[in-house]
Amino acid sequence: MDADALLEGLDPAQRDAVMSDAAPLCILAGAGSGKTRALTRRIAYRIATGTAEAEHVLALTFTRKAAGELGNRLGALGVRNRVAAGTFHAIAYAQLRSRWADRDERPPALLDRKVRLLAPLLGRHRASVQPADLAGEIEWAKARMVTPERYEAEAAKTGRRPPLPAAAMAAIYTGYEAEKRKRGLVDFDDLLMLCASALETDPGFTAAQRWRFRHLFVDEFQDVNPVQFRLLEGWRGDGSDLCVVGDPNQAIYAWNGADAGYLTGFRARFPGAGVVQLDANYRSSPQVLAVANTVLGAGHRHTRPLRPNRGDGPVPTVTCHPTDVDEARAVARALRDRHGPGRPWSQLAVLTRTNAQSVLFEEAFRAARVPYRVRGGGAFLDQPEVKDALADLRRSPARVPFASQLADLEAMAVDEGGTDERRLHIDALVRLGREYTAADPAASASGFLGWLAATVRADEPEQAGDAVQLVTFHRAKGLEWPVVFLAGLERGLVPIGHATTPEDRAEERRLLYVAITRAERELHCSWAERRTFGSRTQTRTASPYLSAVEAACRALEAGGEVDWRRLIDEQRSRLRAVPSPARSKVEVGRNADPHVLDALKAWRSSTAKASGVPAYVIFHDTTLAAVAEAKPRDRAALLALPGLGPVKAERYGEAILALVAEHAVA
Ligand code: ATP
Ligand code: MG
């Protein structure tokens, strides 16, 4: 693609983000502002203008799902196969493997599940704690580079509430590390650390990696943890250029060791770094955005509020159901109502705070014959066709180059034909093979098998067919759907019961913000007065955050897209102006027909009086000016105008069209 084409469909701030010469560069903005779009366009633009070579670009993300999304978007820009895109884990492991091969070292065996080593270490704590919780706590410590010796002090300092008293936790952590060493195993967290220390101590290896990947890009940078940041610094050295993209309002992995401070403190850490802020939202209707903004609240916001860019949508709803079963059934019915021509199931999603909530929905969906897909289903590597293909790879002689094995696999995917799941799985495997090849120049089948085990782990497979998505708030990050249901918005779930510190609560609030901002047009929130856990039925109360949602919905119902616009304006004027190049703005409504405009204003003031609201609640001056300029003759023309969505068109469209018809003749 040529460079100019890559700038099309970008607003001025996004263009700055794509074209800026600053290095390092930080792109900072709220949800749905086109950060990922700007990042992928920037990569393609740099390649198109010759300021970066595709072979030397590395695009990093934190989950394989996000890496896949990034890969797809790069594919659409025509640079996918030449650019390495992957998770920190995948890249680190590929680099380690090539280092081991170069040095003729035998790769250490990987411990796939920590609980295997942990369960025998529990001793008298067996009855009081789950091995998985201990594994989670060890992962937190390792993400923050906290050794067993320092664990107690660090847990106290950060106000951590470990699953066991800190001293006991530290003892188990010590035992775990010792057992792992004794058996000659490394775990997944160790891979990051091993790669980071190799980069710090082995100049030859470091020089080779920095030569290879000299342009670094990171999406969702608010999720970076200390060990990943150390690795990134190892890759970067002082030379290579770095562009990070993120939204501190969407930082939802602190419990897992992430630290959004790397994003918010970017400029302090890298003096001279460029910062570009984006200011429009392209995903959600103004109504959805209004609710999202209210939930975040002025006190919790870390970026400029976004200007809505999509047309009006319906006002979001909040529904209370008698029981959790009623809630699931009602959602299933609502899904059926919304599905139809032009609206496939895949445009609908149901989001819950926990995985466990999905069971009720699955039952209700089966009963209502709503096709659905749960993220976190069967593991990708356990799919039969994937297993078969891997067994073939394992059997094939070592002298067959990996590239031709991959080509065979690709041919097999084509032979499978159709779009069924088998084909999708093989396709996914081929994609992974390419990802691996991009990261490891000495690619081999055995290398690929090891890399897969380390990076894909429990990834769920892509499934074929049109289906409603049933996902947790966490897994929904970065994704979007036209219609979103948020279910189980109750105290104890949102925020989750174990979130008791102010920091935990703030993270829960951001998590709800992430969930709301997945919706493009329709947002439906619900909760139940009674919920059954096992054999216990509990009386529930609404999530404390719902009152803000309801207040926003009421204001929107009253015709006010206004309150939050004012709020945004106020906040904008309070925020320190961030320098940005001059923008040329074409003023809409400058050529308004004065007769039509006068008539519209008179109509507006009488309508406002009649309904007891201020005039601006009916329409802004700018909207009236736009109408008076365009003089629409029908509903479609009316809907094309800024500030005029279906809701307003429904309510006032007829009156406006009549006025235009009457006064525009003169
Ligand atoms: P998140 O914070 O959720 O990760 P994001 O900031 O990365 O969101 P994107 O996913 O890049 O946002 O963009 C959100 C949606 O808006 C996408 O569907 C994208 O294609 C669309 N979009 C972004 N910028 C523009 C634009 N200038 N014009 C039209 N659509 C746009
Ligand atoms: Mg994104």
Description:
There is one protein chain. Mean pLDDT is 85; it is low at 570-586. The protein folds into five domains: 5-97 and 191-278, 3-Layer(aba) Sandwich (Rossmann fold), CATH 3.40.50; 113-183, Arc Repressor Mutant, subunit A (Orthogonal Bundle); 286-377 and 464-577, 3-Layer(aba) Sandwich (Rossmann fold); 381-455, no CATH class; 594-663, HRDC domain (DNA polymerase, domain 1). Helix content is 49%, strand content 12%. The longest helix is centred in the middle third of the chain and has 19 residues, at 421-439. It has 28 helices and 17 strands. Helix 18 (402-416) runs antiparallel to helix 19, helix 24 (594-611) packs across helix 26 (621-630) and helix 24 packs across helix 28 (646-663). Helix 3 links the parallel strand 2 and strand 3 (84-87). Strands 11, 12, 13, 14, 15, 16 and 17 form a seven-stranded mixed beta sheet that branches. It starts with 11 loop residues before the first helix and ends with a helix. It is globular, with a radius of gyration of 27 Å. It is an alpha/beta fold and 666 residues long. The structure holds adenosine-5'-triphosphate and magnesium ion (MG). Adenosine-5'-triphosphate is lined by residues 9-11, 14, 31-37, 247, 250, 282-283, 478, 480.
